[in-house]
Amino acid sequence: MTVTVNGNHPTANDDPIFHLAVPDDWVVAFAVGEYTMSTRGVTLEQEGFIHCSTREQMQETANRFYGDLDHLVVLTIDPQLVASPIVFEPPAPGMDVLFPHIYGPLPIGAVNLASPWVRRPDREWSLDDA
Q1: CB–CB of 44/50 below 8 Å?
Q2: Which of these ranges, 11-15, 58-62, 66-70, 77-81, has the smallest mean pLDDT?
Q3: Which of 50, 74, 106, 126 could form a disulfide with 35 if both were Cys (CB 3.0 to 4.6 A apart)?
Q4: Which fold, 3-88+104-120?
Q5: Which residues lie across from 43 on neighbouring strands?
Q6: What is the pLDDT of residues 22-34, one digit of tens each?
Q7: Which pTM was predicted?
């Protein structure tokens, strides 16, 4: 199942979506005015979309893909300010969980908040620390 959500679609809503950014990638994006990393070490051009999460998905995503890092930046994104399509879809065939994917660059103006997220030493990422 795929659900499309953005400002021009009838199912649009105001719930924010989130992207976990490596701090250096966010610094570059802020300097150029848009964020074009799909996920850690993979660009939008390479992947075709930017991986995002709901708030409930952030902790698992951080532990699965960023477990060896101690610092991230949580980008809180207003879907209404993203011109590109946002599609909620499974990350792989046969999976039922839906993740938001942005099919185009993320303008920094659509990021309402960029918060540092620091992992406590010898612990997993926890939303309690976000």
Answers
A1: yes
A2: 11-15
A3: 106
A4: ADP-ribosylation fold (3.20.170)
A5: 37
A6: 999 999 998 999 9
A7: 0.88
